[in-house]
Amino acid sequence: MAKRSPAAWLRRAVILLVMCLAALLAVRVVLRQAPAPRLALGTDVHDAVRAVARDQALAAVAGEPTIRTPHFIIKYPAGDRADAAIVASQVEKAYAFVFARMGGRPADPVVVRVETRAALAADLGVPPNQDPLGAYWRGVIWLLTPSAYLSGTAAQRQAAFAAVGPVAHELTHLADDDITGGRMPAFLDEGMAQYMQWRFSGYRWLQADNTFCQPHYSWRQLAGEFDSLPNQALAYRESFAVVRAVEAASPGAAHRMLAAIAAGATSAQAVRDAVGSREETALASGSAWSCGSGRASSASAAPAAQTAGATVTSRAWPANASGREPL
To answer: How far apart are CA 139 and CA 323, in angstroms?
Structure first.
């Protein structure tokens, strides 16, 4: 190979740099002209990702006992049959309620994993002291075993689980995922889940630090920082208020909101499409219902509330809410 002077090497390096920049510019122009498609309901990618997650969730507990119902595969730890039976007694009722109102039904049986507190925290990657009662992830539902937070006889625990258990909540996450093809914003997802749980059993998450008689989070904070907001109880209650206000605006408004999100709209655009007013209006009207209009809405329940003779040992459970919306 012939030797080149430093000047020649420099000229060659400059030419290569110019060519690379030109190529990058061309790629950028192409990407602007042809943006990557979003995942939509029923796409092969969305279905495939959920199928893999479902198979993994089942494989991880392949040796555990199973209860099958018409629409569920319930896996539970050996020796925890009584709690698994309590879950099985409620899942079909919640399934019928949620999907009759949300529309559509999963093609395959829903996998539910009933776990101890330590196992659930490990599966979800959260500290055990956060004490989640349930979770949804890519088509699979995790539930904390009822005896971890309910005491009393089996019959009493079953009645209490029907009143405060999170089955309808988690199934709504599944429905949201199906309808929007995985696009559902976190705070509207939680708002829908709480709304459907309230419609199903009357349960609302009310405690001293989520009263509406205090400064609220803005729409921008809810939409962009929901999971990291310091007062999660307030953030969740505001998300519930938004969905309640949307559905109260007109029959079918929540369905229109979900359809808009499925089509690629932002949370703000979806609410505007659904109710014909700005998103901040929905947030303000939903929050205004509860401050100064009734003590029950802003007072916390006793730390160990009684439900059908069973004691809830890990969270305050308020009295049932009143009122019904069309969804």
So the answer is: 31
Nearest to 184 by CA among 283, 258, 253: 258
Write out the CATH class of domain 44-311. mainly alpha
Per-residue pLDDT, averaged over 63-85, amounts to 95
Is 95's pLDDT higher than 90?
yes
> How many Å apart are CA 240 and CA 234, to the nearest integer?
10
Q: Dump pLDDT digits (tens) for 115-166.
A: 999 899 888 888 766 778 999 999 999 999 999 999 999 899 999 999 999 9
Q: Is the separation of the CB atoms in 84 and 74 below 8 Å?
A: yes
φ and ψ at residue 137, rounded to 5 degrees? -155, 115
* Rounded-to-integer distance, Cα 48 and Cα 32, Å: 28
Above 70 in pLDDT, residue 64? Answer: yes
Digit-coded pLDDT (tens) for 176-223: 999 999 999 999 999 999 999 999 999 999 888 888 888 889 889 999
Phi, psi of 316 (to 5 degrees): -80, 130
Taking a C-beta distance cutoff of 8 angstroms, is the pair 138, 184 a contact? no
Largest CA distance in the chain: 93
- The domain locations on the chain are 44-311
Exposed, middle or buried, 124 (CB in 10 Å: 0-12/13-18/19+)?
middle
Q: Is the pLDDT of residue 292 over 80?
A: no
Strands (E), the chain: 66-69, 72-75, 110-115, 134-137, 140-144, 306-307, 310-311
List beta partners, residue 64.
none
- Owner of token pair 């809830």: 312
- Please compute Rg for the chain using Cα positions: 24
What's the one-letter identity of residue 293? S
Find out whether 156 and 308 touch, Cβ atoms under 8 Å: yes
The amino acid occupying position 158 is Q
What's the whole-model pTM score?
0.76
